[in-house]
Specification:
Largest sheet: 2 strands, antiparallel
Distance between the termini: 9 Å
Strand content: under 5%
Oligomer: single chain
Order of helices and strands: HHEEHHHHHHHHHHHHHHHHHHH
Length: about 500
């Protein structure tokens, strides 16, 4: 069982090499990629089952403990890995449904599949990493892969967006190296389980400096305000499959790192007020940016920033209920945000644009497309009884139970953000789906009167989108069981089981 921890990373790396060698055979590339990510889904499902009893650990190499590299799958890591793998698989299948001419334009020289698998490898390794340096390596792998994916096609907008993205992430990487050096100088280790013990022996002011350094790095990765300005300018220019996987996964790796830092390394200094203020600002500023947009991808990018604030909401409470709400919300949001970006790709395919000024009447042209947008949009806004409502209700209850001025501010900001999210989604629905198409846009607008109507919504693009919607609805139907699992995950974050499994050889 322990050896399964290395499988997700190995599958993706081997798959990346195989797809690179098969660059002149697109069908073989797609088959290899889909098979590799599907296998990761299966392994992640097994790890979720195994980790519900105790954390599963694997020491890589022949180094004596605790000098070697350790991979750890506890409940939090395994559930994040499973949801991330499911979304990655859906996005990969979606990308195979694009027309050949579109594939050539969006994914030139057959680099999409190798790079995509490297991205999944980085995400998998980040969730399973048991030391800070391995986490740093994961972030660097993500940076390399995401920069290639962002700039595919070589258009001016994509190069500009990719340049901003890579500069910001290089700065965060440099800061991460400073944090790593500082942590190692103070504790003589970067192993997370050892750090959980040794950090408590340091003076409070030293712990505070190290905590702020690490949180700053992870806040950039998670796009926490005021370190989030890069995201709305980077994501909208990329192809739909790329923006979907970025929106669903990359920021959640940063959120995962913040949760791990706060609960495992610095449980006695949670910085609740600072995180709470950042959560309020992220929610409110992000959603105000969203309602001001007329371009759907930019609007979704701002809502992505805004809803990171809900996860900070739960983390900042520093209670088991708050942590459980944050974990549930992260899993829900990976699915919903990825789905909405896939739907945005379908909207662009049918309407020729994602600007609300150039869209109208899509519900009449394609009722199916209307349904594909409406369900995840209502879920993102938190309309009952969908999983978005369940997640937000859990956070609001945890905030009220905490009863501090900061928690009440978070509760109010959460309610306001939810209402403004509903307004933003209603704006898209009213203008793009119910509105009248501007006469100037009729020449570029595609409808089912077109002789090539069957190509508007290919089954290989619709099926994974429907699958992700079904996954989100599954979060609703099985919310009780899922929330019980994340509640156990939240309690395990602070009960010492992680440290015992790693240092005691458990798992």
């Amino acid at each position: 069982m322990n050896n399964l921890l290395a499988v997700p990373m190995l599958l993706c790396l081997l798959g990346a090499a195989a797809t690179f060698l098969a660059g002149r055979q697109p069908r073989l590339q797609r088959a290899i990629s889909v098979s590799a990510v599907a296998a990761v889904v299966i392994v992640a499902g097994v790890l979720v089952w195994a980790s519900d009893t105790a954390p599963v650990t694997l020491w890589v190499g022949a180094w004596p403990r605790p000098l070697g590299i350790v991979l750890v799958a506890d409940r939090l890591a395994s559930v994040m890995l499973l949801v991330a793998a499911l979304v990655s698989l859906a996005v990969l299948v979606y990308s195979t449904g694009q027309d050949e001419d579109e594939l050539v334009r969006e994914t030139p020289v057959s680099i999409f599949h190798p790079t995509f698998l490297l991205l999944v490898a980085g995400v998998s390794n980040a969730f399973l990493a048991g030391d800070l340096f391995n986490l740093f390596v994961s972030f660097e792998l993500l940076l390399f892969a995401s920069y290639v994916l962002l700039t595919m096609g070589g258009t001016r907008d994509r190069i500009r967006a990719g340049s901003v993205y890579v500069v910001v992430n290089l700065v965060s990487s440099a800061l991460f190296l400073v944090a790593l050096a500082s942590v190692y100088a103070a504790t003589a280790t970067v192993n997370l389980a050892q750090l959980a013990v040794r950090l408590q022996e340091l003076p409070p002011e030293v712990r505070g400096v190290l905590q702020v350094l690490l949180l700053s790095v992870f806040a950039i990765k998670a796009a926490v305000f005021p370190l989030s300005a890069w995201l709305p300018h980077s994501y909208p220019t990329a192809p739909a499959p790329v923006t979907a996987v970025f929106a669903g996964l990359l920021t959640k790796v940063g959120v995962y790192a913040i949760i791990r830092t706060q609960t495992l390394l610095f449980p006695a200094e949670p910085l609740t007020v600072l995180l709470g203020i950042a959560g309020v600002a992220t929610m409110v500023i992000g959603i105000l940016g969203a309602v001001a947009q007329v371009e759907i991808k930019r609007m979704l990018s701002f809502t992505l920033v805004s809803h990171i604030g809900y996860m900070l909401f739960g983390i900042s409470l520093a209670t088991p209920a708050g942590q459980a709400g944050a974990i549930f919300y992260a899993a829900h949001h990976i699915t919903i945000q990825g789905t909405l970006f896939l739907v945005a790709g379908l909207i662009e395919r049918v309407g020729g644009s994602t600007s609300l000024d150039r869209l109208g009447g899509l519900a009449r042209v394609s009722p199916l497309l209307g349904a594909l947008f409406l369900i995840p949009a209502l879920n993102l806004a938190g309309i009952p009884p969908l999983s978005g409502f369940v997640a937000k209700l859990a956070l609001l209850q945890a905030g009220v139970a905490a009863g501090t001025p900061t928690s009440w501010s978070l509760v109010i900001a959460g309610v306001v953000t939810s209402l403004l999210t509903l307004y933003a989604m209603a704006k898209v629905w009213n203008r793009a789906f119910w509105g009248v198409l501007p006469p100037a846009c009729e020449q570029t607008y595609r409808s089912y009167d077109d002789p090539q109507a069957g190509r508007l919504l290919p089954a290989l693009m619709v099926a994974p989108t429907v699958g992700l919607i079904g996954l989100a609805l599954g979060f609703t139907v099985f919310a009780g069981g899922m929330y019980a699992f994340v509640a156990r995950s939240a309690h395990a974050l602070v009960d010492g089981s992680y440290v015992a499994a790693v240092l005691g050889g458990g798992g």
